[in-house]
Amino acid sequence: MTGFLKGSATAMITPFCKDGVNFKAFGEMMEYQIANGTDALVILGTTGEPPVMTEEEKISLIRYAVEKNAGRVKLLVGAGSNCTQHAIEAARLAEKLGADGILAVTPYYNKCTQKGIYEYYAAICGAVKIPVICYNVPSRTGVNILPETVEEIAKIPNVAGIKEASGNMAQVLETARRIRGKCDLYSGEDALNLPILCAGGTAVISVVSNLAPKEVKTLVTAVEKCDLPAAVAFSDKLLPLVKACFSEVNPIPVKEGMNLLGFDAGQPRAPLTELEHEHRVLLKKTMIDFGLKVTE
């Protein structure tokens, strides 16, 4: 299927406090995104730290987000796993609780074959009626969805597209060629948002848009309008912020960035750690240079 997701989507952080999820802060972050033109919110993706959350916390977050959003923008829920049955159960639950779509990362650690990847997505898609987005991020999972495999997956009726974060533009271009008109291509790597959009990507699923939703949306809009000079200018402006947001593993820097903006984002849960001092100094300076208003 095509046309499910267009524009900018934000891979939301999950703010934690001593009692669990900080729902007040999360609600404020949702409003910040919606007010600045974000087209979709992704919760419980990599940036949301689902591996360190309890099932009860995940369910509560989905319920809160669905109610708070009230249908204003698309709401996607991360439901991938290295256990196919667990991924199916998570996808069904997200659908039941009101998610508009599923973001399913490839099975991680197991290192399954390309056939295994296809069967994994076929099983998830067969278990729900809502759209499913495949997520390719081999640097984290140890598994890479090859273009020919994506082409086969794209034939599944409720596959909406693939979030590409392989970092390999030659592969991305081949994937785009094979799936064009069958399902959509989304950028899952902020540093490559511009070239992926120019290759026919219909949306970005962004980490840096936690901090700068308006600017990321402006970049996407410039490409949509075929205004390449403006798109290049916005991309050039965003790239230093992107670099600072990935000075350590995601979501450590972006979470501290949200704290610097005045949100009560808290700190990542172990085994992730607080942002190192030198990287915090860099992030703060980059945010100020970018034009964001930091609170300290």
Question: Can you give a write-up of this model?
Answer:
The strands form two sheets. An eight-stranded parallel barrel has the order 1-4-5-6-7-8-9-10, surrounded by six helices. The protein has a two-stranded antiparallel ribbon with strand order 2-3. The model has no long low-confidence stretch (mean pLDDT 96). The relative contact order is 0.14. It is 46% helix and 14% strand. The chain is globular. With 296 residues, the protein is an alpha/beta fold. The chain is built from twelve helices and ten strands. The longest helix has 18 residues, at 228-245.
Compact overview of the structure:
46% of the residues lie in helices and 14% in strands. By secondary structure, the chain is of the alpha/beta class.
H-E order = EEEHEHEHEHEHHEHEHEHHHH
Distance between the termini: 46 Å
What is the annotated CATH architecture? Answer: Alpha-Beta Barrel
Cα radius of gyration in angstroms: 18 Å
Main sheet properties:
8 strands, parallel, barrel
Name the beta content range: 5-15%
CATH superfamily: Aldolase class I
